[in-house]
């Protein structure tokens, strides 16, 4: 009997179980195995099947969430929508609450977002977390703080409103009084993580952000919401009157708390040079590396107690005689190495050492474009060989892996003007160890986001194309959703029902004979919005926008943010028919009974309540639209698979709720474009 086996053998068995469902079945066998799975089994499964993801020790929920997330990525299952400030918006430095955010105006083209985001766990459950995302909107900084799980109800009710998923959402914007659109546009945004704040972050503190601008300002901000700075009487007055009078809450009077003031805590000395890009190291005592005036890289320490911070060191990465070359990006590979992307150049990637005294004067390593560079025998004459040149824009390090035998910063990815994404290895003499390239599109790569060692997302310069590359070897995938047996789904209302499995589609939820994976592209341009419906998309140029920025709060987050012209798009990788979605979404599910047809909401944390409150066992139906698109603002995109063989087939999304599941291996919203 399994229950009689020693723990060591049980651990080996769990290592070979292919799915979370298999582990759950083992857990239900008997009390002893249930105890073992709860104590060790879920941890072993999560670390074995998802080795590149760093998760908090909520192993049961982590296994559920990671397995669900992997399936949704493989099936291209997501719900996307534009995000912008709404509800009660804190506007700084005025210190006021405004009922509506106004988009920047006065420029011939929309703003080009720069995005940063993170999340931290705040409780004892997987869903207890706080997500922070900030982006540039011209000369204005926009920040959203979302509190999820039990912390949403435990936080003071004075900051933010609840969204349809039961998450508390608060908005903060900041724009200096003297700033002008265009001249003072924000070019870099870096949020300090809670562990990097000195003194350590307290619950009542705001959020620290390093912001660089085109006019040469580089500042450290501490952003706090206005409602935490005023008396309860003023807050109540605002909430009572603002819906009727459309007024803002002035907190510049005696109602302001003593610790309120200018959000700028530190100025970094740039001597007025344009900030091209900037990055903050991941250490607890962080450093800031900024590209100034296209040729210089400056290194700063971050000290919120100092009003003015001079650079520790500066280097000139590009000689003056190379007039056509410029620095495009800087990124810390680790606490000891900084990568610089430049071009056009035959060696567009330079790596500098970070020492206690500052940056090394010369690069410790340069990377070219030819894989044979650095590996060619030095005795061979290659002087007559014409080497290719290009520019490198984004740089993204891969997470460390003890299994693969490399530490932090030894492997990193770069995106180039030539449309090629290259994997570089500091230990290898070759210029790159691997390349990722779309055979159907060679437009420049403007942004990169690495999701563990599982996937790579790239934003390109043309046609709103966002590319997804699977970094896993076909024969080396530790987890695949198609190994899961069918588990059933919620019954849908008649007008939203999917076809039976024996008709034109696969089961609503469960196994598929086709192992969907590989690389694919999505057009981040909505098919269900006419240009006149959204002023942000009135011009053809906006509809053909590059993907300027990509950011994910963490590699385990189901959300991904993409910056396009004049907008930020949030992708939530979920299946609208999933009976058991990621726990962070369960609270937003809306069910209707088969006879009463009234919506029920959860109160016990599992996403549903019984219809009559007594566990009647009546059949319930999932209201897809109210669960996933109550505001009817979900976007419908198009996508196609990257392939060197055969014709490309364009797939398009139906609206949320109109699901048929007619394409095997795809999410139920996808259909062939010829049928749209």
Compose a concise summary of this entry.
The chain is of the alpha+beta class and 676 residues long.
List keywords for this structure.
single chain; 676 residues; Monooxygenase; 40 strands; globular; 9 helices; eight-stranded mixed sheet
Shape: globular
Mean pLDDT: 80
Helix content: 10-25%
Stretches where pLDDT is under 50 for at least 5 consecutive residues are 230-236, 238-260, 373-382, 481-515, 535-539, 596-615
DSSP helical segment count:
9
**Gap from first CA to last CA:** 55 Å
Main sheet attributes: strand count, strand direction, barrel closure? 8 strands, mixed
Count all strands and give the number: 40
CA-atom Rg in angstroms:
26 Å
Beta-strand content? 25-35%
Please state the structural category: alpha+beta
Describe the structure.
With about 675 residues, the protein is of the alpha+beta class. Among the domains are: about 1-75, Monooxygenase (Up-down Bundle); about 85-270, no CATH class. Helices cover about 10% and strands about 30% of the residues. It contains nine helices and 40 strands. The strands form eight sheets. Strands 2, 3, 4, 5, 6, 7, 8 and 12 form an eight-stranded mixed beta sheet that branches. Strand 14 (about 275-280) and strand 15 form a beta hairpin. The termini are far apart. Residues about 230-235, about 240-260, about 375-380, about 480-515, about 535-540 and about 595-615 have low confidence and may be disordered. This is F-box domain-containing protein. InterPro entries: F-box-like_dom_sf (IPR036047), F-box_dom (IPR001810), WD40/YVTN_repeat-like_dom_sf (IPR015943), WD40_repeat_dom_sf (IPR036322).
């Amino acid at each position: 009997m399994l229950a009689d086996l020693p723990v060591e053998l049980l651990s080996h068995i769990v290592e070979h179980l292919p799915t979370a469902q298999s582990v759950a079945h083992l857990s239900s066998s008997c009390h002893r195995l249930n105890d073992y799975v709860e104590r060790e089994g879920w941890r072993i499964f999560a670390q074995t099947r998802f080795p590149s993801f760093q998760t908090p020790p909520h192993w049961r929920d982590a296994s559920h969430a990671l397995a669900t997330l992997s399936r949704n990525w493989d099936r291209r299952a997501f719900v996307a929508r534009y995000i912008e400030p709404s509800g009660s918006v804190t506007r700084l430095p005025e210190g006021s609450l405004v009922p509506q955010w106004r988009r920047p105006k006065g420029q011939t083209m929309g703003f080009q977002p720069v995005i940063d985001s993170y999340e931290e766990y705040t409780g004892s459950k997987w869903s207890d977390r706080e997500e922070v995302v900030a982006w540039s909107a011209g000369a204005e900084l926009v920040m959203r703080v979302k509190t999820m799980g039990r912390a949403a109800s435990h936080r003071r009710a004075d900051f933010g409103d609840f969204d349809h998923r039961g998450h508390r959402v608060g908005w903060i914007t900041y724009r200096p009084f003297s700033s002008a659109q265009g001249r003072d546009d924000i070019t870099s945004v870096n949020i300090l993580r809670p562990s990097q704040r000195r003194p350590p972050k307290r619950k009542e503190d705001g959020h620290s952000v390093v912001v660089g601008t085109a006019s040469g300002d580089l500042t450290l901000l501490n952003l706090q919401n206005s409602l935490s700075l005023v008396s309860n009487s003023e807050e109540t007055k605002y909430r009572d009157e603002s819906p009727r009078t459309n007024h803002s809450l002035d907190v510049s009077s005696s109602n302001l708390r003593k610790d309120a003031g200018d959000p700028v805590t530190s100025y970094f000395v740039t001597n007025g040079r344009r900030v091209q890009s900037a990055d903050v190291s991941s250490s607890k005592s962080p450093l800031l590396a900024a590209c100034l005036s296209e040729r210089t890289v400056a290194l700063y320490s971050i000290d919120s107690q100092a009003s003015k911070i001079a650079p520790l060191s500066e280097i000139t990465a590009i000689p003056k005689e190379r007039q056509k070359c410029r620095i495009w990006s800087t990124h810390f590979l680790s606490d000891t190495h900084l990568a610089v992307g430049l071009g056009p150049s035959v060696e567009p990637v330079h790596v500098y050492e970070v020492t206690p005294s500052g940056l090394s004067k010369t690069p410790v390593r340069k990377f070219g474009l030819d894989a044979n560079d650095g590996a060619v025998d030095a005795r061979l004459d290659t002087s007559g060989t014409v080497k290719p040149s290009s520019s490198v824009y984004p740089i993204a390090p891969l997470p460390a892996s003890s299994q693969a035998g490399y530490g932090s910063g030894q492997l990193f990815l770069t995106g180039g003007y030539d449309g090629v994404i290259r994997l570089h290895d500091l230990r290898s003499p070759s210029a790159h160890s691997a390349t990722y390239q779309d055979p159907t599109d060679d437009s420049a790569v403007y942004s990169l986001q690495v999701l563990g060692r599982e996937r790579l997302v790239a934003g390109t310069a043309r046609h709103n194309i966002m590319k997804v590359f699977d970094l896993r070897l076909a024969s080396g995938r530790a987890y695949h959703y198609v190994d899961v047996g069918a588990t059933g789904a919620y019954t849908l209302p008649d007008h939203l029902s999917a076809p039976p499995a024996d008709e034109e589609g696969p089961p609503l939820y469960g196994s598929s004979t086709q192992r969907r994976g590989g690389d694919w592209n999505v057009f981040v341009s909505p098919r269900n919005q006419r240009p006149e419906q959204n002023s942000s998309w009135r011009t053809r140029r906006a509809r053909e926008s590059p993907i300027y920025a990509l950011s994910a709060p963490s590699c385990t987050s189901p959300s991904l943010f993409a910056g396009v012209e004049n907008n930020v798009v949030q992708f939530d990788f979920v299946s609208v028919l999933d009976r058991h979605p990621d726990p962070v979404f369960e609270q937003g599910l809306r069910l209707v009974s088969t006879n009463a047809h009234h919506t029920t909401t959860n109160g016990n944390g599992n996403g549903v309540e019984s219809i009559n409150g007594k566990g009647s066992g009546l059949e319930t139906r999932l209201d897809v639209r109210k669960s996933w698109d109550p505001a009817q603002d979900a976007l419908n995109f198009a996508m196609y698979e990257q392939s060197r063989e055969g014709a490309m087939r364009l797939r398009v999304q139906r609206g949320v709720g109109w699901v048929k599941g007619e394409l095997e291996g795809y999410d139920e919203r996808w259909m062939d474009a010829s049928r749209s």
